[in-house]
Amino acid sequence: MKVGKLPNDVLKKIILDKLKSKRPDILVRPNIGEDCCAVDFGENVCLLSTDPITGAVNEIGRLAVHVSCNDIASCGVEPLGLLITLLAPPDTTEEDIETIMGQIAQEATALDVDIIGGHTEITEAVNRCVIVCTSVGKVLKEKMVTTSGAKPGDQIILTKSAGLEGTAIIAHDKEEYVASKLGQELADRAKTFINRISAVKEGKIAGEYGVNAMHDVTEGGVLGALWEVAEASGTGVIVYRERIPVEPETAQITELFNIDPLKLISSGCMLITCPDGEGLVKKLKSNGIPAAIIGEVTAGPDKKMVSGEHEECIPQPDSDELYKVL
């Protein structure tokens, strides 16, 4: 099988369709595109999400915190706590683990998130460090936002720029090659994108503003996230390629490796749908968060991207472009 997340059709057939539990206090269950599960705790809902970091070598502690916390933020609230499992191969040193945990502690402190548990183990089952991070949050029941809430007529907003996380990972893990082809200055700028991969601030702002759906953009990139929002919501989408922001560093790095920035892992970007996209974009920008309206939610099932006079269907996400590079 291809490296990366299971294709959504395979995921549904061999995993999701086998999950039969129907407890009434589980409000959001595993489904295509849903970032979190939700458990009824009376007035509040407990939000839970779990994610591994497997596609990076450098900065994995920082990535683990933000990728997991972004899932909670996609429900419109700040995360409260994290559980961290670190699996490391036998050649790992104490200094390696200290570096990773230092990154985790630093980013958790910056987000005001507690590390509430976890597990650390040296094992021959992995050949490089793997982190699995579970995030916890809570929200008032009537305020919860899901991936599946998009409605026809909603405008589609993307925060920041496509390929943000993937650009940072490539610049860190392939720095020598990128610098030799595009210059050390560009490689250094691209590495700083790691500082922009938290989407907690925009998730909270959008939740307070009032939106219908949110989805943080991870494996499969912007196009994969669009497909998942539409599939989860039972809608279509139409987006315009020229409206999707792509940083010059991302454009040059993706061209160098012959990959598509719109299919590149993009933690730090939040995909949001709401009726008043202009108002939300204004609100986000006033809080220092770049955002753009890139399209609309449609009633039909078609998922389309328009580029000039050309129109193409958005397919279900395949293996992320990052794995072609790593």
UniProtKB/TrEMBL annotation:
<dbReference type="InterPro" id="IPR036921">
    <property type="entry name" value="PurM-like_N_sf"/>
</dbReference>
<dbReference type="InterPro" id="IPR011854">
    <property type="entry name" value="HypE"/>
</dbReference>
<comment type="similarity">
    <text>Belongs to the HypE family.</text>
</comment>
<dbReference type="InterPro" id="IPR010918">
    <property type="entry name" value="PurM-like_C_dom"/>
</dbReference>
<feature type="domain" description="PurM-like C-terminal">
    <location>
        <begin position="151"/>
        <end position="305"/>
    </location>
</feature>
<feature type="domain" description="PurM-like N-terminal">
    <location>
        <begin position="33"/>
        <end position="139"/>
    </location>
</feature>
<dbReference type="Pfam" id="PF00586">
    <property type="entry name" value="AIRS"/>
</dbReference>
<protein>
    <submittedName>
        <fullName>AIR synthase</fullName>
    </submittedName>
</protein>
<dbReference type="InterPro" id="IPR016188">
    <property type="entry name" value="PurM-like_N"/>
</dbReference>
<dbReference type="InterPro" id="IPR036676">
    <property type="entry name" value="PurM-like_C_sf"/>
</dbReference>
<dbReference type="GO" id="GO:0051604">
    <property type="term" value="P:protein maturation"/>
</dbReference>
<dbReference type="Pfam" id="PF02769">
    <property type="entry name" value="AIRS_C"/>
</dbReference>
